[in-house]
Amino acid sequence: MSARRWLFAAAVAGQLVVLYAPRAPSTGGVPGLDKVVHVLVFAVVLGLGWWSGAPRPLVLAVSVVQAPVSELLQWAVLPHRSGDPLDLAADLVGCALGWWVARRVMMAR
Q1: No. of H helices and E strands in the chain?
Q2: Residue ranges of the alpha helices (H) in the chain?
Q3: Residue 50's closest CA among 60, 39, 42?
Q4: Mean pLDDT by 10-residue block, N- to C-terminus, for the chain (109 residues)?
Q5: What are residue 23's DSSP bridge partners?
Q6: What angle do CA 36, 46, 50 make, to 5 degrees?
Q7: pTM of the model
Q8: Is there a contact between 18 and 25 (Cβ–Cβ < 8 Å)?
Q9: Within 10 A of 40 (CB to CB), how many other CB atoms are there?
Q10: What DSSP designation does 84 have?
Q11: With 0-12 CB in 10 A as exposed, 13-18 as middle and 19+ as buried, what is 87?
C-alpha cells in the first residue's frame, strides 16, 4: 500500500477514535475547540481520501453519512457522550472544506 493510502487510513482511524471514544477527549477546555476538531477530522479524511486516489464519490458519501450516524450513536450508545446538532453541522462543514481544498490543490497541479 502506498504512503498516501497509509496516511488516509491513519486519518480514518483517528477520526473513528475522535468520534467513538467512550468519553470526549476534551471537556471544559477552550470554547469552540470541539467544533474545530470536528471540522478538521472530516476535512482531513476528505482531503487525504482525494489525495490517496480512493474513489472520491465514495469517500464523500461515506463521510456525509458518517456525520449524522456518529452523532446518533454518541447520543444513543455512548453513555458519556451526547449527540450534538452543532457537531453535525461542523462535521458537514469539514466535509465541504476538505472536498473544496483537495479539489483546489489537485486542480492546481
Answers
A1: 4, 0
A2: 3-20, 33-52, 56-76, 85-108
A3: 60
A4: 94 95 72 91 96 94 97 92 93 96 86
A5: 80
A6: 150
A7: 0.91
A8: yes
A9: 17
A10: -
A11: buried
